[in-house]
Design brief:
Pyruvate-ferredoxin Oxidoreductase, domain 3; two-stranded antiparallel ribbon; 9 strands
């Protein structure tokens, strides 16, 4: 079965590497996967999208993802300027970096929340003044969706960054995995 993930972040937050690490985690579980970035204005802080597909069969699609099963939002302020929910399947889920609980979001989709920014700041995962939240969001994704295991996320992170950098990023994923709150749709939208 094909599952599609769309990451929304800002340049420098790690959305592209997050999509790649998700694909690697799925590959470690012996599944087909692919990650694709999409850049508009290539500058730090600009909105960025990245895509991951995971399947039990070979993947032939090579386009952007227009109808994701999951949307991962690394910066909640993007919800004010970007239509991150566009095309999200009705039974899909949004995973958001926020202090809010899912039932406080007022969304018509299942939601999971984690304060990935706080985790990144506590672990000093900061680059050019921006908290890098991608590995925390992967931990949240593993917890909320079950599409990849947290163990595969750890392995993918540790293969990407050896030694201390890998250990800190794996800890970020673990902390987020343990603190993610998963909820149901909080309001119903008429068709």
């Amino acid at each position: 079965m094909l599952k599609q993930f769309r990451f929304h972040g800002r340049g420098g937050q790690g959305a592209v590497i997050g999509a790649e690490l998700l694909a690697k985690a799925a590959f470690l579980e012996r599944r087909w996967s692919q990650a694709t970035p999409f850049f508009g204005a290539e500058r730090r802080g600009a909105p960025v999208k990245a895509f991951t597909r995971i399947s039990d069969h070979e993947i032939f699609l090579r386009s952007q993802i227009y109808d994701p099963d999951y949307v991962i939002v690394l910066d909640p302020r993007l919800l004010e300027t970007v239509n991150a929910l566009e095309g999200l399947k009705q039974d899909g889920m949004i995973i958001i970096n926020t202090r809010k609980k899912p039932d406080e979001l007022g969304l018509s989709f299942k939601a999971a929340t984690v304060d990935a920014t706080d985790i990144a700041l506590r672990l000093n995962l900061v680059l050019a003044g921006l908290p890098v939240v991608n590995t925390a969001m992967l931990g949240a994704l593993a917890r909320a969706t079950g599409e990849v295991s947290i163990e595969s996320v750890y392995k993918a992170i540790l293969e990407e960054w050896p030694r201390r950098a890998g250990e800190v990023n794996a800890e970020s994923a673990r902390l987020a995995h343990d603190s993610t709150v998963v909820g149901k749709a909080s309001k119903v939208v008429a068709p």
